[in-house]
Amino acid sequence: MAKEKHSDVRQRPLIGVSVIVRRNGRVLVGKRRGAHGEGTWQFPGGHLEFGETIEACARREVLEETGLVIDRIRFGPYTNDIFTDEKKHYVTLFVLVDSPDGEPELREPEKCDTWQWIGWSDLPEPYFLPMKNLIAQGFDPFSG
Q1: pLDDT tens-digit series, residues 42-78
Q2: Does 9 have pLDDT greater than 60?
Q3: Inside any domain, residue 41
């Protein structure tokens, strides 16, 4: 039996955690800046760090990026996101959370232009690739 050739470790997919923060029938989205996907809309999130739980990553990223405290963390779907031009590959894990109070602060202005609460059917475009792939799945964070 022939051995399968594995790609170089540096070419393996990374894990992203994307946090769908919900409040009053709306979700929190930000406009990317200074990184791949600049000018596209995204949810708060980032890389899963070595040894970190998905829940801890979601809490950390939302707090770092927006200053919001989240609760009721629930696992959602995932997407397989291949950024062809940038030669990047991510598996993005989506989590659903609630943020009962407070307003998002722009804590990383070099990475995000603005945070806005938007209705799911009114999400602004263009979408960051993981968001685009999630929407293509027909996902609705308010159903079920």
Answers
A1: 999 999 999 999 999 999 999 999 999 999 999 999 9
A2: no
A3: yes
127 is a domain residue = yes
Task: Judge whether 33 and 9 are in contact, CB under 8 Å.
Answer: no
For the full predicted model, state whether its pTM sits above 0.85: yes
For residue 42, which of 67, 61, 14 has the smallest C-alpha distance? 61
**120, β-bridge pairs:** none
List the structure tokens of 93.
């894990």
Give CA torsion, residues 138, 70, 83, 3, to 10 deg: -90
What is the per-residue pLDDT across 79-94, written as a single tens digit (0 to 9) for each?
Answer: 999 999 999 999 999 9
Check whether the bond before 126 is cis (ω within 30° of 0): yes
Report the CATH number that the domain containing residue 40 is assigned in CATH.
3.90.79.10
Q: Which two tokens stand for residue 133?
A: 């792939």
Relative to beta strand 41-42, strand 26-32 is antiparallel
In the predicted structure, residue 1 carries a pLDDT above the cut 50: no
Say if 142 falls within a structural domain.
no
Residue 44 lies in a domain: yes
Domain count, the chain: 1
